Amino acid sequence: MGKREPIIAANWKMHKTVAEAREYVRRFRELVEGFSGVEIVLAPPFTALPAVREELCGTAIALAAQDMWHEPLGAYTGAISPLMLRDLGCQYVIIGHSERREHCKETDELINKKLRAAFAHGLTPILCVGEKLEDRRAGLTQAVLERQVRADLAGLAKGDVARLVIAYEPVWAIGTGETASPQDANEGAKFIRALVAKLWDEATAQSARIQYGGSVKPENIAALMAEENVDGALVGGASLDPAAFAEIVRRARG
After folding, report:
1. Homologous superfamily (CATH) for 7-252
2. Known catalytic membership, residue 121
């Protein structure tokens, strides 16, 4: 099987006005012009999606949303549906980020519904999984990952799982400046891939791309990407600066 295409995604979280988003993309486009060999994804807040789509016109950079609801329409005040995201030109959607699991009390059951809805409406999910610090200290990393992956992916078709992007994000490393070692990142990704192979088959596991996320910076991306099972990165804080994120993309290309 051919090597999986690396995927580097920027999760801006709750940052940037529409004007700031436009300025960012204009600068970033120039910095990564001519880059190849890696898929680049930008996930701005909902309010900036139309503007970012306009600024990305003519580029190969993909657009992602940071979340969505699992119904296509209905009486869900404040929610954004997969149909709306497709209408805005989104190709990807982040689902199950630890911040939503914690602050919005999202359950694996809800995340499973969102994954099914994303695939049903032609969006590729970036599913976030990862253990908390207390889990890691108690030696429960693999148990947590297995529980999340089994529940989140329950009932998904093999072809959808093969297209999935999974972001292994140890919760203790997100926004803390603490980064899992490249070996830790690879072990987490390797375990997830082996579990996918167990639940589906080896070909499906080898097709799915697994990112690492958690305090990714220009200084550590090359070492992370050198690991066999790490197919990219979901970048938070460092993605807010176009020059820093462009440098991460450049170094991720090897």
Report:
1. Aldolase class I (3.20.20.70)
2. no
**Predicted TM-score (pTM) above 0.85:** yes
Is residue 23 part of the annotated active site? The answer reads: no
The single-letter DSSP state of residue 123 is P
Strands 62-65 and 209-213: unpaired
Catalytic option among 55, 70, 97, 99: 97
| Helices and strands (H and E) in the chain: how many | 12, 8
Query: What 8-state DSSP symbol labels residue 171?
Result: G
Choosing from 39, 169, 227, 247, the catalytic residue is: 169
Nearest in space to 176 (alpha carbons), one of 237, 135, 118 = 237
If residue 211 lies in a helix (H) or strand (E), which one and from where to where?
strand 209-213
Percentages helix, strand, coil for the chain, rounded to the nearest 5? 50, 15, 40
Residue 1 has pLDDT above 50, yes or no: no
Give 135-153 pLDDT, tens digit per residue: 998 999 999 999 999 999 9
**DSSP letter assigned to residue 176:** S
Distant-in-sequence, close-in-space partners of 34: CB < 8 Å, separation ≥ 6: none
Contact indicator for 118, 83 with CB cutoff of 8 Å:
no
- The pair of structure tokens assigned to 14 is 């709750």
Model confidence over 201-248: pLDDT tens digits?
A: 999 999 999 999 998 999 999 999 999 999 999 999 999 999 999 999
Domain ranges of the chain: 7-252
pLDDT tens for each residue of 91-141: 999 999 999 999 999 999 999 999 999 999 999 999 999 999 899 989 999
Structure tokens at 236: 């938070």
Contact 144, 135 (CB under 8 A): yes
